[in-house]
Amino acid sequence: MQAFKADTSGFALDTAGLQRLFEVLAEDGYRVVGPTRRDDAIVYDEIGGITALPAGWTDRQEPGRYALERREDNAFFGYAVGPHSWKKFLFPPSETLWSAHRGDDGVMTVAVPERTADKFAFIGVRACELHAMAVQDRVFGEGPYVDTAYAARRSNAFIVAVNCAEAGGTCFCVSMETGPRATQGFDLALTELIGGDEHLFLIEAGSEAGRRILERVPHGTATTEQAEAARAVSERTASQMGRSLDTRGIKELLQDNPEHPRWDDVAARCLTCANCTMVCPTCFCSTVEDHSDLTGQNAERVRKWDSCFTMDYSYIHGGSVRTAASSRYRQWMTHKLANWIDQFGTSGCVGCGRCITWCPVGIDLTEEVAAIRAALDEGRSR
Amino acid sequence: MESMEQILGQQSFFAGCPPEFVRLIAGCARNHHFKAGEYLIREGEPADRFYLVRQGKVALEIAAPGRPAIIATTLGEGEIVGVSWLIPPYRAEFDARAMEPVRAIGMDAACLRGKCDADHHLGYEMMKRFLPVMVKRLHATRLQILDVYGQR
Amino acid sequence: MRADIAKDPFVPEIYRVGSVRRELADAVTLELEPVSGTRPDFRPGQFNMLYAFGVGEVAISMSVGASEGTGFVHTVRNAGAVSGALARLEPGATLGVRGPFGTGWPVAEAEGRDVLIVAGGLGLAPLRPAIQEVLARRERFGRVTILVGCRSPSDILYQHDLEQWKQRLDVNVEVTVDHAGTDWHGNVGFVTTLIPRSPFDPDNAIAMVCGPEVMMRFAASGLQKAGMPAGNIYLSMERNMKCAIGLCGHCQFGPAFICKDGPVLPLERIAGLLAVQEI
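ok -> structure tokens follow
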């Protein structure tokens, strides 16, 4: 995405205009993906138009709890984030890397599957999720080796951000400086404004591609009051954070305390179920599976999401390096909040709160960090 | 020809040892030569001597009934063969076999024990030198037991 | 060193097994030649991902330097499904190769200094290309010592090479085993016991260490006790490896990715982590 100065004066879009945006994107060959209500959760899937949006629904989130509730209004984007993240489209949970064939002469050949250059338009991307994409861009696209399939999907993607109008109970983007307002990394950004009979979206373009699409969607100029209201939305959301994380010196805090007793404490609660890694929008670990057919002539290699919470993850001949739950939890959290900074120049956490909400036993990483910090502070002051 | 005192003084085992102690120790020492296959020490025999190897390689062996003897460790130049002389009842616990022609300084254990008992400063000086040898061997043995190269 | 974006780093090249040499009861050395094109250049200590058809991939270091031959040489121990399948390959069979990957031994940095090679078990395999490079330009280095430890006399790798190196007057080679009968005429004892007996200037030497992690940990400790600074001691680390290109996360060792920051790492970078269990 090219650098582009965000247009701060802003434009306004009504719900018909939003519907038209979906259509224009579809006309341009995008697979339009957005939030929709399914199985008592708000998930991301291909949607045809605004009727698929979870209008009038919100989510109540606490450690280990997620529930949808009716809103008093009909807001389209009146929820925080659900169990899905956009990574499932950019970094699919299962992807065939290549297939191999062994001819009658026994000689092996390898073929890369024809990849359809998926063109996704993501509708309703939150500020934390924009940051999560930027984090995965560094992982997959900015090292010595590039995941070319990811890079292609990423550069093809059109992103419509939404500024959060309320914070979830497990949100802490303010602590991670990743939200709640989308400031970069989008093509278009919406702020939903509902008042009286009005249901409007303040819309700003964040890229040349965004501006070109917006030109084809009927819209008006935002009034000063509307622009002011949109700013107020973000300010209010920022003040409502369900959680906070003190990030001061967090890299050293975790890297220097691998033997802290809190790791055993959290391990006594952790089920090593890997939920946190599956819902995390930045977790990028993968494994590969090799299959062959019954003839023994065809084989393929499939890449799948993996988790540092499994035993197999750290297996080297003879056994796993990390057998204890405490060492696996330590690996996950130290990597996410500390080692990531060494590896990619950024935290691996964007403060979306998914790992807290979707942990079956409600482990809250902000609480775990605070406990490690408090125990050390107590030790020092003694 | 070098005196025993000079020879001992050059050994790293006695590095930093006060000259008057080296003189006392030299009084209990004499040179020994072993042909390949000869034993410096036999298990169970009185530990009346220990050796400081000057040249050649010595195997510490343990024989077990019904199976071939195994070598527990090998020792070479500058190393000590025999520590049982320090610990009652002063009986050797290993066989020590010359794997090749060996030149060594042999210390008369009863002579040195007597001098150590008479002068505890000398005794402490000897202990300071023997304890690290024993700890290092114990540690190395633990690593051997680990069997780190084996398939788990 | 961004790789060519057009080339998919996940896709292996096809190589053919030229010869198979049995090294030990459970280890063979495979000579591999590219079916088409030429083998890329590589440095001592780097590794390839070898793919056994339908079974999977495993990371194995090159065991002969790039200046010899036109292919890759790998010593493979039958330690699991994939390495077992590789170890059973016969001449003429084809397999997949991705690589070379990772960091190499600091051979250039060792010029003008004493060189200490410490190998444990199959750890001699990744070190052999470094030894070959040092001996090929022997005059550029100070004293050269090769210390090899293994389980028993029948587990000594590359006996032929060791004999040839021993015959040189400008190399000090010592082999020790953990367990031996009285028919063994060499050293018995853990490989670390050889360090204090070796001639090197601790202030002006480079040590390259490869073997099981616990062996490297104690060898590193022995070298430090002998006076070597941690910055001059290099270890070749092993962790689970799936992608080998820093994308899959498996090989993390603290902040380091063993596949791209390693496998060869200076002790000073990882000393704090070596002592932590299950890191």
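Helices of chain B lie at 4-10, 19-26, 109-118, 120-146.
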